[in-house]
Amino acid sequence: MAVHALDLDVAEGETCMLVGPSGCGKSTTLKMVNRLIEPTSGRILLGGNDVTAVDPVELRRKIGYVIQHVGLFPHVTVAANVATVPRLLGWDRARVTARVDELLELVGLDPGIYRGRYPHQLSGGQRQRVGVARALGADPPVLLLDEPFGAIDPVNRDRLQQEFARLQREVRKTVVFVTHDIDEAVRLGDRVAVLRDGGVLEQYDTPARVLGQPASPFVAGFVGARRGLKRLAVTGVSLADLEAPPAVPPDASLADARRALDDARAGWGVVVDAGGRLAGRLDRASAEGQGVVADRCRPVGARVGPGASLEDALAQLLLDDAGWVAVVDGDRYFGVLTPSALHAASRRPPPH
Description:
352 residues, alpha/beta, Rossmann fold, CBS-domain, 3-stranded mixed β-sheet, 14 strands
């Protein structure tokens, strides 16, 4: 039995990642949705309608499908490949042309350059982009992707993952995405379904909860011992995580700055102007002598926005000698993340 008693509910506009070891039924599950494989029992509902009650050809025209090796028609141009479903639906030539150009722009390929090329004239990453454009041809509500980036080299794989994330933010399709790569799953998914042999569902949850609270020893083993590091990428900075070191204005005297640091028993502080903008940082040694803070403060290089991930914050912290990261929106200052604050944030129970 390839898939056993699988029960999944994918919300409209969300990306569900199916992940698990080879042979666990990920691709079989995907192919049952568009009836490339007929389910032997159970029901698959699309918008409340049982897919087995619909003509399979009509069903597939309403579902975009992208596979690992793309499957472009080699003997026709990029434009003709992308236009496949709109032409089958009888769209007129002007509408088809406009849609092809729109989709090529959407996936980052200049129509003026790529419309007339053939698949063999494209790189692997470009062919994969064309495959996604073709799948979106008639604006289907559902998109199925079967390890679409599995055969791409690591550099282009990363770029395609970024492109997919950007694209999904724009089009908000309901996506079921098969991968064997847990890093890809937690990076791209709104929810992650971890399957084991026989298509048995071990856990279906947000990336943060799959990494932070594995539901079983199988899930813990599959996501790996480095799941704490992986979780940094899917855990956002929270204002509740921030620390508030001593803050002094740039026009304060160095004597006042020393008092503020000494009163807080702090070796450093931040320089914040009257408008709440971060103007720099000041350590205790630099505050010695006469003058004003503006003369001695140094720029703050390690900065992230309030919407950044803990991984972004850690990367900035490691690249700067300050030993902490400022959280700012533009120049508006909110607080700082120190190594201890980052550790505490990474141990925060994931939200439901």
